[in-house]
Design brief:
Elements (H helix, E strand, L loop, with lengths): L7 H27 L3 H26 L11 H13 L5 H17 L8 H19 L5 H8 L8 H28 L4 H45 L1 H14 L4 H12 L2 H11 L12 H16 L4 H5 L2 H27 L3 H31 L1
Helix pairs in contact: 1-2, 1-3, 1-4, 4-5, 5-9, 7-8, 7-12, 7-14, 7-15, 8-9, 8-11, 8-12, 9-10, 14-15
């Protein structure tokens, strides 16, 4: 007799989890078949075995509800396997890495797997694959080498991206708000009040959102580390095997990796610190950074962009203020567009002009709507 009645969404979720794990195990075995290094072959086989265990876990959850599901690999997995056999494992490893990271995040949010090590294991797989990808490219990824040689300008840092997008959000949203109000009233303090309200409301919203995001990540990391500590306490052999796999993926011979892992596990604090860094990809001292610092930074960046279209209305009134606001906002938008090229490598003129068109287009729409509303109310 089934232990519970499944909701349709739960049934679909379990089946999707099983299919993902079956596909991953199939791909790991296919990659192992193409791998020339015996060490990496063994790593891929063990990863495949772990994915098979994960599939069995979800099959058991489904079986408790009186259903069975044992699918074959999907056409996507079979196609990737063919590509791996044709072009080598490096052709599909980035895709596998993304799949593992996706599974890690998904399992952390699912109640059935919340108190298991599956999320951490999937993340560990992604970290190992990322390490292997870097090593198979000669120890330095092509993009990093090209940056050092100056061949392309992609900088792609998260801090830079957050800074540019934060200022852009503030400028575009407040410019649109101000122009909408200016279209309705043209004169008076209403525009300044609306601009200040937009600046403060948007900056506070961004700050709170960033605080919640970073704090939630910290809490998730703390929880993952607690699970890892419990695993280390109750199943040290399994954690030792995980560490040995990681060091094998980094290039150590199996015997040396196992010896190093065995020695490390004898010191619980060092082992936990290493597992957090190597398996989970977490720095235990930082845990994703300071939530307060992230919130303050988001507030400042949004406000810095939002103040640009507002300043002219603090000094001028009427049509001159609207024109000057549009001009300085155009300059600001172009600068932001140019800054984006640090991440994308596109032409400064292309990115700058595109940002100007988008920002001024949004402002024009709200100005026209404000004008219509102002005329309607006045009439």
């Amino acid at each position: 007799m089934p232990n519970k009645t499944l909701e349709p969404q739960d049934r679909a979720r379990y089946r999707a989890n099983i299919q993902d794990e079956i596909d991953s195990a199939f791909l790991y075995n296919a990659v192992a078949d193409t791998e020339k290094s015996p060490q990496l072959q063994q790593v891929y086989r063990k990863l495949a075995a772990t994915e098979t265990q994960h599939a069995a876990f979800w099959q058991n959850v489904l079986r408790e509800a009186g259903e069975t599901f044992a699918p074959s690999p999907t056409w996507r997995a079979r196609t990737l396997a063919l590509l791996a056999r044709r072009f080598g494992s490096g052709f599909v490893l980035p895709t596998l890495t993304d799949l593992e990271r996706g599974d890690s995040k998904g399992y952390a949010a699912q109640p059935e797997s919340k108190n298991t090590a599956m999320s951490a294991q999937e993340n560990s797989h992604a970290v190992m694959l990322q390490t292997i990808v870097g090593q198979t490219r000669g120890g330095m990824e092509g993009s990093a080498l090209a940056q050092l040689e100056g061949r392309h300008r992609a900088a792609g840092g998260n801090a830079l991206r957050a800074a540019v997008l934060g200022a852009n959000d503030g400028l575009v949203s407040n410019l649109s708000l101000i122009m909408g109000v200016a279209g309705a009233v043209t004169q008076g303090h209403e525009i300044v009040i609306a601009g200040m309200a937009g600046l403060l409301a948007g900056a506070c919203s961004m700050a709170m959102g960033e605080w919640v995001s970073v704090q939630s990540s910290r809490e998730l990391y703390e929880r993952q580390i607690k699970i890892e500590a419990a695993e280390l306490e109750h199943a040290p052999q399994e954690e030792q095997q995980e560490l040995a796999l990681i060091y094998q993926a980094k290039g150590l011979p199996q015997a040396q990796a196992e010896t190093f892992a065995a020695k490390l596990v004898t010191d619980k604090d060092s082992a936990l610190d290493t597992l957090a860094r190597e398996e989970l990809g977490i720095n235990p001292q930082e845990l994703g950074g300071s939530a307060l610092e992230a919130a303050v930074t988001s507030f400042v960046l949004f406000a810095a962009g939002a103040i640009v279209p507002l300043v002219p209305f603090l000094l001028l009134t009427g049509i001159p203020a609207i024109i000057v606001s549009a001009v300085v906002s155009t300059i600001g938008l172009f600068i932001i567009g140019a800054a984006i090229t640090l991440m994308t490598g596109r032409s400064i003129w292309y990115s700058g002009a595109r940002m100007v068109l988008i920002g001024l287009g949004a402002a024009l729409v709200t100005f026209v709507i404000g004008k219509i509303i102002g005329v309607t109310i006045a009439g």
